[in-house]
Amino acid sequence: MTSIKAVIFDLDDTLIHSGINYKEIKSNMIEFLVKAGVDSSLLKEDMPNIKIIGVAVEDLRKKGVPESAVKKVLHKVNAILDEAEMKSLDDAKLMENALEVLEILKKRGLKVGVVTNGCRKYADKVTKLFSLEKYVDALIARDDVPSPKPSPGPLLKALEILCVPADKAVFVGDHWIDAVCAKKAGVKFIFFKSKKWDIECNEGIHDEVVDDLRTLITLI
Fold first, then answer.
1. Residues 141 and 130 occupy one common structural domain
2. Is this model's pTM higher than 0.85 or not?
């Protein structure tokens, strides 16, 4: 991967070992959405959060729920996510070799970005907690954009801040939503193998696969 000018990372389970209890979040979201009037048969715990929210909003609108009420539901869903993310900080750990790799990238003159579906408060706290913020030139969180990953919006916003075109950047992430986000944005994608997610979800939409962040140094 020659002529790369920026490396953009996912945050949870890429730069840090996340302490977020994803199963609990989904369960709480679904429980609330069903109480809010969403058909329970439409919501499954194996669906990504963004899909759960999208299906719920569509169902509420089909039922004629006023837009003001839909917005209140979305506000509560985001509050559930925010609370779970902040609660997870005590269990978060730095990913092996993350600081070493970031330091090398910066010494090479590369720009570094982070794009996360976590809320801004969580992203700021966790990057400061592990001294990541001094390496990061652009940080885009869930509440910084109209639509989070897998929408390309967050990644495109990071590129805009970094002043780097899509074909001069690479995105590193551990989840299929990262891969789809990168593809839609026209950015090369490196799949970071995490114990939490299956590589099969990313078949055909990654340019490289690594299981150690240090491998990035030889690829970029």
1. yes
2. yes
